[in-house]
């Protein structure tokens, strides 16, 4: 099969198109013919080597963390899917590789594709929707009437997180640029801070939850908008010891992660709020619940552009400009 892969870590490096064997099918796996995939900032970070300590991949490595496609074969112990099923997924972090024509995944990580979405729309969702779900539903336990600030509301995670928070009955604020104000309002944002004109930390106060996907400066300023007992959840780091434990890392690595996050945890404590780092995990059950929300019209896909498979490097470069609204998709089949 054809696939885009890296044989070494290199900042800004080009993915190589090559012929590789079809993935091996384990007894709990489904083999999916990929119709569409999407690009995430995570793909560039893996290529650049930013995660080589946390996620020790064997090279050469096929990149890609989202998939929509059709089941073509199932393992001997698979009970939930059959050939011909239209599915979507975020593969487990140790089995990524959706910039390809086929992928094998554990059935536990897979869900039926929403009936009201195209393959391209469905492929835009798994990683960002699971991130939003795990941040707001699992970690924040967001309740009706609570106030949440979602940074970068026009980005991949932000666009879904706004809709999910609104569906949960929260009061939603977001930050974005002037060009994207109408988009984030259409997704349900109650308050929009144009970061080119205003400082969010001077505009917002008394918030229960902040979901951060930006850098250190934004992370620290976010402490000022939270009320005592509030939760600062970051998907862009710094990682903490709890993440290292979740990842199955040893004591030494846990101490290193604790050290990395010690500054923001200290500052959070002084503000009377909690800090946690979220690295989303594959979960077909949660994705099934998200499917129900999509089919009910509570969440819609936000797709900026669709690139053909041969232009995968262009799609990755476009995501790296930081200007994409929602997601950038690659049509594989």
TrEMBL record:
InterPro entries reported in the protein's UniProt record: ADH-like_N (IPR013154), ER (IPR020843), GroES-like_sf (IPR011032), NAD(P)-bd_dom_sf (IPR036291), Quin_OxRdtase/zeta-crystal_CS (IPR002364), YIM1/Zinc_Alcohol_DH_Fams (IPR050700)
GO MF term set: oxidoreductase activity; zinc ion binding
Residue intervals of the Enoyl reductase (ER) domain: 12-330
UniProt KW Oxidoreductase keyword: yes
Keywords, in A-Z order: Oxidoreductase
Signal peptide boundaries: none
Name listed for the protein in its UniProt record: NADPH:quinone reductase
Source species: Rhizobium hainanense
Lineage: Bacteria, Pseudomonadati, Pseudomonadota, Alphaproteobacteria, Hyphomicrobiales
């Amino acid at each position: 099969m054809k696939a885009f892969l890296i044989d070494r870590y290199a900042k800004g490096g080009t993915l190589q198109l090559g012929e590789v064997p079809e993935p091996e099918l384990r007894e709990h796996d489904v083999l999916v013919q990929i119709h569409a995939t999407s690009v995430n900032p995570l793909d560039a970070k893996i290529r650049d080597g930013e995660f080589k300590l946390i996620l020790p991949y064997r090279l050469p490595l096929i990149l890609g963390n989202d998939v929509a496609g059709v089941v073509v074969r199932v393992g001997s112990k698979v009970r939930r899917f059959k050939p011909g099923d239209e599915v979507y997924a975020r593969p487990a972090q140790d089995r990524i590789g959706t910039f390809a024509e086929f992928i094998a995944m554990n059935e536990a990580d897979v869900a039926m594709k929403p009936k009201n979405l195209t393959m391209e729309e469905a492929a835009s969702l798994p990683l960002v929707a699971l991130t939003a779900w795990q941040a707001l539903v699992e970690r924040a336990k967001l309740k009706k009437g609570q106030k949440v600030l979602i940074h970068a509301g026009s980005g991949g995670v932000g666009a879904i997180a706004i809709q999910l928070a609104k569906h949960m009955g929260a009061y939603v604020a977001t930050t974005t640029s002037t060009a994207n104000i109408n988009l984030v309002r259409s997704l349900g944002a109650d308050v929009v801070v144009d970061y080119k004109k205003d400082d969010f930390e001077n505009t917002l106060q008394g918030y229960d939850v902040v979901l951060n996907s930006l850098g250190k400066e934004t992370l620290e300023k976010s402490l000022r908008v939270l009320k005592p007992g509030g939760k600062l959840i970051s998907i862009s780091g710094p990682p903490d010891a709890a993440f290292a434990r979740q990842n199955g890392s040893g004591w030494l690595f846990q101490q290193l992660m604790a050290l990395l996050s010690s500054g923001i945890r200290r500052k959070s404590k002084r503000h009377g709020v909690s800090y946690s780092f979220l690295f989303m995990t594959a979960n077909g059950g949660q994705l099934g619940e998200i499917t129900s929300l999509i089919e009910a019209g509570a969440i819609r896909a936000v797709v900026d552009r669709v690139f053909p498979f041969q232009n995968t490097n262009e799609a990755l470069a476009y995501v790296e400009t930081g200007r994409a609204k929602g997601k950038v998709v690659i049509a594989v089949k």
